[in-house]
Fold:
Amino acid sequence: MTPVTFEEKYYPAVKETVYQTRLSNGLIVSLLPKRQFNEVYGVVTVRFGSVDTNFTLSEKGLQFYPAGIAHFLEHKLFERENAEDIMESFTRLGADSNAFTSFTKTSYLFSTIDHLSENLDLLEELVTVAHFTEESVEREREIIQQEREMYQDDPDSRLFFATLANLYPNTPLAADIVGSEKSINNIQLNDLKNNFTAFYKPVNMSLFLVGNFDVDTVENYFLQKKLRNLEEMVVRKEKLTLQAVKETDNLRMEVSSPKLAVGIRGAGEVAAEDCYRYNILLKLLFTMMFGWTSERFQKLYENGKLDASLSLEVEVNSRFHFVILTMDTKEPVSLSHQFRKAIRQFSSDADITEEHLDLVKSEIFGEFFSSMNSLEFIATQYDPMDRGETIFDFPKILQEITLEDVLEAGHRLIDNGDLVDFTIFPA
Structure:
């Protein structure tokens, strides 16, 4: 048996100890026992997402695949050779299971109060065994097209992804995560097999367990496993080639009130170890400027120009980073002008003060510690493969951030960034 030794890392800010190891096959395993809960959440994450449609294989060169292939593969892996759905096997064990695809990764998870070893076996089967046939691919294609149509009928989803497409034209980010009608139809059996072979390797995955379990039990589980030999990654992901943004755009849908999005695209790359902190800094900056505690929001709200629908999306990855604000407003043209002007002149904004920063930090602190009572939140937000800080460093990072740090992050994003707006008008 191959020995399994977990290293301990204590996070004083959240009073938690994470146990982590890398198995001989390359899989990173992280454990956070929380015996005060009844459930256990298990998540396997694969570093393969919607933006990974162009990549270089060491033996085959540059490869191009249709948009939506990572999401398509996520669907197909739940199907066994006999057409049985693995989800039903989780259900028979009393567990819930799910999966989701994001821009840069695909995650498969379960929650259970019993039969941990059996659920771990099913999770392993999900990401290591693939059964594809032409017939099953065609059957799944129809299901995914229906899912795509559902998103196309959702104004908020259309608003976000249309804005993203105008921020990153002619890149994989310009396509919805599920793909387009044409790209879904273009995904073939061999495409799925090739991507599974390229990305679904233990060295490109991590497993995270959080909840009511014993570390020794999990260690013994892996001691009994016959692990595959380490396979090195032979994939080089391609950088996004940024082109000129489409500064303003619109469409019409069946909505009761216009919907506006204002987005900004950052220039240059962010070091992997800096991504988490930079994300927090940008959230602080834009919350101070546009959040419900800002003078700007209060005035617009009191005048009926803005409501509680205002939301903020911040995405920071080593390959791309952007911020998108979305809202319902009866005056989208006027509000877009105000927001864009405020963003460009952020360094002199009346809402960016030491006092306001302290207020926003206190609010975010409270939200964070409330979220830490949710195993699902911890399971889906902690990324064992992050090379920098993680959610367990969040309180320490937030406490140390100064107003100068926030302003510096703003200059980094905005000074050389590109702004767009997108409006959905009532049909």
Remarks:
- The first strand starts at residue 7 and ends at 11.
- Residues 248-426 form a domain with the Cytochrome Bc1 Complex; Chain A, domain 1 fold (CATH 3.30.830.10).
